[in-house]
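Data card: per-record layout.
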Amino acid sequence: MTDIAQPANEAGKSRPFGAFEWLLAMRYLRARRREGFISVIAGFSFAGIMLGVATLIIVMSVMNGFRTELLSKILGLNGHMFVRGIGMHVMNYDEMAANIAELPGVTGVMPLVEGQVMVSSAQNAGGAIVRGMRERDLKNLRTVADSVIVGSLDGFDEGGVVVGSRLAQSLALTVGDNITLLSPRGAITPFGTAPRVGAYPIVAIFELGMSEYDASFLFMPLDEARNYFRTFEGVSALEIRIDNPDRVQAVAPAVRAAVGDCCDVLTWQQTNQSFFSALQVERNVMFLILTLILIVAALNIVSGLIMLVKDKGRDIAVLRTMGATKGAVMRAFFISGASIGVAGTLAGFALGTVFCLNIETLRQWLSKLSGTELFSPEVYFLSRMPAEIDPGEVGAVVLMALFLSFAATLYPAWRAASLDPVEALRYE
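The structure for this 428-residue chain is written out next.
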C-alpha cells in the first residue's frame, strides 16, 4: 500500500487522472477471491451496457431499414401525387399531363387506369389490382422494369399483361399462359349486371421483394384497360413523380392550380399517413423501452461501486492518511465505474454494427438452425430483413450510454471521497 500511495506524497497531491489514480482504479477492478461477488456485478454491468447499446442499434437500424424499404417500394410503384377526377374519370389527360410536366420539380406524369378484379386459372383463383399503363411509362417505372425476372416489357402495348411473382405462383402460371380477369362491373342487361370476363397472355413476371405487391398487382396496356373498365376517353388518374418526395407539399399547390376544380390532388403522405405514422410511433416506443436496459445496467454500476467502496473503506482511509486527496479518491473510483461503461459501450457498438451488416445472413442461418421461418414475407411485407445504420442515431445511442455510465459513477465516487479516515480506522 505504501508504494502505491508514494506518488501522492512526492507531489503533495496526485495529478488529476494521472498514473496513480489509474493504477488504483485498475487494481480495484481486478477481482480477488474474496472480492469475486463485486467482480460478478461488474461483469453483469458490462454485459448489460453492451447488450443495451447493441440492441438499440440493431432495433433502430431495422426500423430505419423497414421504413426506407417500404417507402421506396410504395413510392416506386405508386408515385408521389395523384390527380383524380371528382365524381368522374380524368378527361383530356394528355393536355393536363403536359401542363403538369412543365411545373418546377415534376419529373414525370403518367396516365393510368386502375381497378380491382378477380383473377383465375385452371388451378386457382384470387383477387388482384389492375393498372393500365403505356409501355413507355411502365419502362420508366424503374421499380418494376428493373424487377422483371421472366419475360420482357418489349411490345407490352401490343397486348398481354405483366403480373407479380407471387400472383403467378399462386395461380400456377408462367410467361405465355393465359390469365382470366373477371370484373363484377360489366354490361347492364335486362337480367341485371353481367360480369366482364377477359383472358390475356402473360408477357412478363416481376418481383419487387414486397409480398403484398408481388401477390396482388397486375399491369395491362392502357388502351386495353380503358376498354376493359369502360373509362372510354378518360383515365382513372394521373400519377405524378417529383424530384424530392419530401417536398411534395410544396409542389402540390402548383399542381392543384394546373388541374383546376375538376380534379382532386392527393399526395403520398395523405394516402399512406396512417401506415407511416404507426411505424414512427412504434419506433419511438421501442427506443424508450429498450433504453430501460441501459438504465438497469447503469444501476448495476452504482450497486457494484457502492459495494466496492464499503469493501475498500480501510484502504481508502489509509490512502487519505498518507496524503491522497478527496479528489484523487473520487477520480479513482470514477475511473473504475466509467471504465466498465466505456468498455461496454464500445463492445455494444461493435456487436450492433456487425449484426446489422450481416443481419440477413444471420436470419437465414437461424432459420435453418431452428427450422422455422423467422421473417415471413406474408407478415412483414418484405422478402428480406432490412437494416439501415444511421450514424446520427448510433452516435446518440453511444453518447447516451456513456452519459448514463458516467452519471452512475458520480454518487459512489463521492461516497468514497467523503469517507472519514478517523471513522474508518477507529475499530481497526
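Known properties of this structure: The chain has a mean pLDDT of 81. The first strand starts at residue 81 and ends at 85.

See the next section for split statistics.
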